Amino acid sequence: xxxxxxxxxxxGRPPDAARWVDPVLFGRGMAVIRIFFGVILLANGLAxxxxxxxxxxxxxxxxxxxxxxGARSILNFEVNEREVRGGASPGTQVPGLRPFVxxxxxxxxxxxxxxxxxxxxxxxxxxILGLATRGAALxxxxxxxxxxxxxxxxxxxxxxxxxxxxxxxVLALVxxxxxxxxxxxxxxxxxxLRRWPF
Length: 198
Prior knowledge:
Elements: H1 23-49, E1 55-58, E2 61-64, H2 68-81, H3 97-105, H4 109-129, H5 133-151, H6 162-173, H7 183-189
Antiparallel strand pairs: 1-2
Helix pairs in contact: 1-4, 2-3, 4-5, 5-6
């Protein structure tokens, strides 16, 4: 690999971007982000299938993943109970969200809990494998945008939700499954698949 040098614009035109960005390193970087998000989704999905996986204790490290009961409790608390400011009514201030969550999602949690499990396990697995990567990222993005709406008026750290959905927006647009993923061999062997969601 040749060392990269700073290109100089010729005749006022921008320099060739390929000289600024090594496409192999860029592809590997996108693959790492893809796999990382896949692990996050898959781990949370597995914790919803088996709640004992929701608690992680490794020496001094203690953490948790969101179980099905935990997801329901968090949703109920954020939408109905969280008190953001003294004197303000508790729960979300997002118009229409409370009735939707209470009358549709929580009222039918027996179905929606499995929708969440499916999104996390299937979406996470596809992202890890790099298969139909952009489609998997788009489905996961839908879940994360819903959660961003839930947390919108909860007085959280400003970047708590964007760091979960912005990378998924990028993964839904960029073919990150072609490096270290199954999308690569698929589009190489079947050029007709060289389009979204691969």
